Amino acid sequence: MGAESTRDQRRIFSLACRVRTGCSPHRALRQVFRILFLIAVFFTLVGQASVVRGAVAPVGQIPTMTVSVTPSAFALPILLVNDLAEWKDFGIQVHVKVSSGGAEQLDGAIGNAWDVAVMDPFFAFQGGNEGSIAIVGVAGNLAADLSLLFRKGQTSPFPVKSKEGFKGRQFAVAVPSAEHFYLTAFLKVHSIAPRTPVTEPREAHPMRILSEGRAEAGLLREPFAQILRGKEWVQAEDFRKDHIFLPTCLVATASYADTRKTLVLRWLEGYFRGIRIIQKDPIKAAFRLRQFYRETLKVDIPETQLIREIQEIFYFDLQEREGLFRAEAGKVSPMEGIAKALTAYLLHQKIITEAQESSTYLLAQLCDQLSALHGEADAQLKKTAAAIRETEKVGAPVRAFWKTWEEARAQIDDGRGCLTVIGILSDLQRSAEQSRAETLRLVKFRRIEAGFGMLLLLYYGGYFLCWKRKRAS
Fold first, then answer.
1. What Å distances lie between residue 341 and 41, 122, 143, 328, 335, CA to CA?
2. Environment class of residue 280 by beta-carbon count within 10 Å: exposed (0-12), middle (13-18) or buried (19+)?
3. Region 421-433: what's the mean pLDDT?
4. What is the pTM of this model?
5. Domain residue ranges of the chain, discontinuous segments joined by +
6. Percentage of the chain exceeding pLDDT 90
7. Radius of gyration of the chain from Cα atoms?
8. DSSP codes of every residue in 172-195
9. Residue 220 CA to chain centroid, in angstroms?
10. In this structure, what are the phi and psi dihedrals at residue 348, rounded to the nearest 5 degrees?
11. Hey, what CATH topology would domain 64-141+247-370 get?
12. CATH code of the domain made up of 146-241
């Protein structure tokens, strides 16, 4: 009687529990597992979202630079990069301003009408000595763009073996100018007295002097020499093979170079990228130069002749460009040497009244910084690849990382903005390292989660077994 009473009381209590709570031990266990499942799903989604988070930083406004050029082949690298819309790879936008000549550029530098420029050495060193210009790089050798023309039927003044080639000839050359400086230096190197008669057209263009027959020979730069060539005038071929260093300069206004060195570096990178484009496809470059001459000078030069010009005037070798600013074996650098010679010429011609130390306007350190960028970019590329591999080992998705890395490597190989690529790779490395750390944290959490779930499973499993035994009894 007592046992039956106790059993009845248990049944009544069990029934009361089900009535009050509305659940059974089986249902409670299912709820527990449902909660655990939802928790696991939640943290899985959070973990995956954190793992695939990208390295993209907010994009600010890209700074714009005004670049001054003149109608010459040295503007070509800027035009080609502009046509390919690649300036954004260097973190800048470029507005091209075409000036009629170096004098107009020099006036614009004083009035801050432009930021950086490709400039005739005569005006670049004049501006450097006057304090308005900083020379930051070399575009190419202007001497390779000069041609000595003489009338058909006359004896060529070259090769130079004596004064006879120049004796009695009237030369058309602008005075003062880079051409006149070059001709004077050339005659001096070959021990020809500078008293050689020279026509000084002052404001008149030498091409006009030759066209009017008022001189027997003339020193002209391209494309003006190209216009006269093939008519009554022929070129002294050996003259182009006997160069004296006369650089076309890459410059910035003094104030811009002082306050915006990083942007100047980006522009230099872009200019040298344009030189690589020329080297890779000179036919396409010649076609673009032909268009530029049509637009600015209203002349049409055959592309076959332009190809020769662009292949001769640029420094395609990186080490050769960098070596122009570096002194070796106790000698001054080529740029310091030409600075001294051109400054003396400017003083002699009374263009300037006072000479400045070349170190005040020759920014050789920018050349060194630009050179260091290539090594830094290669080193960052390797460090980022190592970080991505470590991230891949822990099971994190890295396909997007590798894609960005490959794009950065191609950009470095093409010379498209090492400074920008270094920033991209640094962000990518940090993102890969963060992804690896978050993946490891997620793995640890899952282990804790699994252990906690196992404890709950054992607890409720034991509880269920105990309940079942009690019910059976």
1. 77, 11, 15, 19, 10
2. exposed
3. 77
4. 0.73
5. 24-53+372-473, 64-141+247-370, 146-241
6. 30
7. 38
8. E--SSSHHHHHHHHHHHHTT--TT
9. 33
10. -65, -40
11. D-Maltodextrin-Binding Protein; domain 2 (3.40.190)
12. 3.40.190.10
